[in-house]
Design goal:
The complex is a heterodimer.
Chain A: E1 6-11, E2 16-22, H1 24-29, E3 35-39, E4 47-50, E5 53-55, E6 58-64, H2 68-74, E7 84-89, E8 101-107, H3 114-123, E9 127-134, H4 143-149, E10 152-157, E11 164-165, H5 169-177, E12 184-188, H6 191-201, E13 207-211, E14 227-230, E15 233-236, H7 237-240, E16 243-245, H8 251-258, H9 262-274
Parallel strand pairs in A: 8-9, 8-12, 9-10, 10-11, 12-13
Antiparallel strand pairs in A: 1-2, 2-6, 3-4, 3-7, 5-6, 13-16, 14-15
Helix pairs in contact in A: 5-6
Chain B: H1 5-8, H2 21-29, H3 38-42, H4 49-57, H5 61-69, H6 75-81, H7 103-113, E1 129-133, H8 137-148, E2 152-156, H9 165-168, H10 177-189, E3 193-195, H11 206-209, E4 214-217, E5 223-224, E6 237-239, H12 240-248, E7 267-271, H13 275-286, E8 290-294, H14 306-314, E9 318-320, E10 323-331, E11 334-348, E12 354-358, E13 364-367, E14 370-373, E15 377-378, H15 381-386, E16 411-413, H16 416-419, H17 424-442
Parallel strand pairs in B: 1-2, 1-4, 2-3, 4-16, 6-14, 7-8, 7-14, 8-9
Antiparallel strand pairs in B: 5-15, 10-11, 11-12, 11-13
Helix pairs in contact in B: 2-4, 2-7, 4-5, 4-7, 5-7, 6-7, 8-17, 12-13
């Protein structure tokens, strides 16, 4: 099969899409916590996406169709071929070899990163607790996967339309307060969610990782677009991360840089809505 | 032969149009064919310059390019980007009293007129497999040489286009991308397989790399340095690598048709005095910005090619020398200025460049809504971290012996990853030496 062929594509909600892509070099080497970059066509952006899972020579991704390139990606179907898929990139998650209790918290589209992590943690012999949350029931993804992979799973929705009403930080707080032994916590989601949720574990001195998602270009340490401040030092999320110690991340710095191109993103969407024919750009 | 500045700052087409055939022949006929040609010594790869210039004088352009290609596989590129004034042309005897021979322009001319880039016929297959990491000047040269010598060569490139810095770094107005592509195609015609989207150390494990009979590392100096001063992460501040990659590789000058944006500043400050700084400044100019180049030493100390400095000035870029940034000033979550100090210029140091000292209390703020830092690059750490056995020297470059062999016997290195950030021609020279050493070793 041709490299980078889409094997399967489906909408998980109005805005979130799942895909399986034939990318042998990525699939064979991917570990939990790593990401890939998808470049659907020659005029699109290089979009960094965490790898949700692998099976044989295929990788699984999930993404929110929010900008021009991800919207284009969401229109592609099984059998379509992507121009470029590169990865795995970044450092794998620091999963201990067994006997630890780990909590994996996913929020929104960040839940996409949790199955591969839960699977790896479980396989290494750890006790895995999952907490996944979404704004509302329709936006909740990968519940079935997590149910199967985790020893315990808590599901939250902000509006209470499903599971526990409230944020994913709620069950995490309860777990911490219950006095149960928790060795490591992973929190993956939007910047503000990670910032707030990681405050829950700080008083308990629990080692807490977050997966940062700043704007990237090459993903190989070449441009510095993804620089973040961690422990007062400049780090490149693409090669030094994407996972970092949550309690020493400079969140304001990260979120300011994430918002850097909001005006341009809007401009691009407006342009491409107006010039619809340009989506079949022959620039490959 | 340059396009007028006011015309060229509105597009990304090539600035220097090069010689016509008549001009080339006339220029070549000025060469006095020295018995002991200094120019050859001045060339990092030792091209037989008098011989190829003589061929041009005799209007045998094909012969000229064949002579060059014995030592340099990428003449269309080197003719454009070599710092000739400090190499071949810098030592040309005619330069003592008048103008040296325009060797760079002659090299470029014969490379451009060669219709389909010819490649040498590869030697008998050796049965050996060699992996080349990186497809920039070093990787392409090593790959071409190894293929010519009969080895099966696979090049791994992490980006989605081959060419390395020739593609993502050097802008099209200085090095048109079709020229780079033609050179890459010529290397492919030698039988070299180039695998893009392959990150060695990640998508190609180190064990897989070491399963080849020999390895050449040409991963370059891709890690951008930052100044390490306050406010550096403010939106609007770029490394030159990022700024140039967004434009050269991702088409940001055509945003929103191309979906990768780049900030178009009203007032752009570029920090640095090398070729990369000139490139960044001239790219910003072409996107309609008012551009100031800030450099801590004097204009004479700038490491950039003379042509680049001249072109930048012609295009209306303001030079602010003896000035060093100390802090970036932000407003509404974006950069709005560069606080700088004036530098006192002293006697030249051992490296020939002026010594400098901060003038206390000379702080002032230059308005800027985009800042590009072009203050140098180091070796990319991604692969090197995955190869802890690979010895490195103090500045982080891979340690090599005189033929490019590293501390791992079957692994060789050349170009910026071994020499530290340098020139395209030096990268090619070290790569070719390493390729020949690999060949000798594989035939032992």
């Amino acid at each position: 099969m041709e490299e980078y062929t889409i094997i399967q594509a489906q909408a998980l909600s109005d805005a979130v899409f799942e895909m399986w892509i034939h990318a042998p070099q990525v699939a064979r080497n991917a570990k939990a916590g790593q990401f890939c970059i998808i470049h659907p066509d020659g005029a699109g952006e290089r979009v960094p996406l965490t790898i949700s899972g692998t099976e044989g020579d295929n990788i699984r991704i999930a993404f929110m169709a929010i900008g021009t390139t991800t919207k284009l990606l969401s229109t592609l179907k099984a059998g379509d071929v992507l121009r470029d898929v590169v990865g795995p990139l970044g450092c794998p998650s620091e999963i201990a070899e067994g006997n630890e209790t780990v909590v994996i918290v996913g929020g929104g589209v960040g839940v996409a990163c949790t199955p591969i992590l839960a699977e790896a943690a479980k396989k290494a012999g750890n006790y895995v607790i999952g907490i996944i949350g979404a704004r509302t029931k329709d936006l909740l993804i990968f519940e079935d996967d997590m149910k199967e992979l985790c020893d315990e799973l808590y599901v939250t929705t902000d509006d209470g339309s499903y599971g526990i009403k409230g944020f994913a930080s709620g069950p995490l707080k309860d777990l911490c307060e219950s006095g149960r032994k928790i060795d490591k916590v992973w929190i993956i989601g939007p910047g503000m969610m990670m910032k707030v949720t990681s405050e829950v574990t700080r008083p308990y001195n629990i080692k807490t990782f977050v997966s940062l998602n700043p704007v990237m270009v090459d993903g190989t340490g070449m441009c510095g677009s993804c620089r973040v401040t961690v422990g007062g030092e400049m780090k490149f999320a693409c090669v030094d991360g994407p996972e970092f110690d949550a309690h020493i991340v400079d969140w304001d710095d990260l979120m300011a840089r994430q918002r850097m191109y909001m005006a341009e993103e809007k401009q691009s969407l407006e342009y491409h809505e107006e010039h619809h024919e340009c989506r079949c750009r022959k620039v490959n | 032969m340059d396009r007028a500045a006011e015309e060229r700052i509105r597009d990304f087409s090539e600035v220097d149009l090069g010689f016509t055939a008549e001009e080339a022949v006339a220029e070549a006929q000025r060469c006095i064919q020295c018995k002991k040609p200094k120019c050859v010594e001045g060339c990092p790869v030792g091209i037989d310059i008098p011989a190829f210039v003589k061929a041009i004088a005799e209007e045998d352009f094909k012969k000229a390019v064949t002579i060059i290609k014995q030592d340099n596989m990428l003449p269309a590129i080197c003719g454009r980007v070599c710092p000739q004034e400090t190499q071949c042309q810098g030592v040309c005897i005619l330069g003592k009293k008048g103008n040296p021979i325009s060797i760079g322009h002659l090299e470029r001319f014969v490379a451009d007129v060669e219709e389909k880039r010819e490649c040498p016929i590869p030697a008998e297959p050796s049965g050996k497999k060699v992996a080349v990491v990186g497809s920039g000047p070093a990787g392409l040269s090593a790959a071409a040489e190894l293929a010519r010598l009969g080895h099966a060569v696979t090049v791994f490139e992490s980006l989605h286009e081959a060419g390395g810095v020739l593609m993502y770094g050097i802008p099209a107005f200085r090095l048109p991308k079709d020229i780079v592509q033609a050179e890459i195609d010529a290397v492919k015609r030698l039988g070299v397989e180039i695998k893009t989207n392959h990150v060695v150390g990640r998508s190609v494990p180190v064990e897989e790399l070491l399963s080849y009979d020999a390895v050449f590392l040409g991963t370059g100096a891709g890690l951008p340095y930052f100044m390490g001063i306050e406010g550096e992460n403010l939106p609007g501040i770029y490394s030159a690598n990022e700024f140039l990659t967004r434009v050269n590789l991702m088409g940001a000058q055509n945003f929103p048709i191309f979906d990768t944006p780049v900030k178009r500043g009203k007032k752009v400050v570029v920090i640095g005095g090398g070729n990369v700084a000139m490139d960044a400044a001239r790219v910003a100019k072409r996107m309609g910005s008012d551009v100031t180049l800030m450099y801590r030493r004097t204009e004479a100390d700038m490491p950039a090619r003379l042509d680049e400095v001249r072109h930048a000035k012609e295009e209306g870029i303001t030079f602010m020398t003896a000035t060093n940034p100390v802090r970036f000033v932000g407003e509404n979550n974006a950069v709005c200025g560069v606080e700088a100090v004036k530098m006192e210029i002293g006697e030249p140091g051992e490296d020939g460049r002026s010594s400098i000292k901060e003038i206390e209390g000379s702080n002032f703020v230059v308005e800027a809504d985009v800042v590009v830092e072009a203050i140098g690059q180091g070796p990319n750490p991604l692969l090197l971290r995955m190869m802890p056995d690979l010895a490195r020297n103090r500045n982080g470059s891979v340690t090599v012996n005189e033929v490019g062999q590293t501390s791992i016997a079957k692994v060789y290195a050349g170009g910026d990853v071994a020499t530290g950030a340098a020139t395209v021609i030096l990268a090619m020279g070290t790569a070719k030496d390493a390729a020949r050493a690999i060949d000798a070793k594989l035939r032992e």
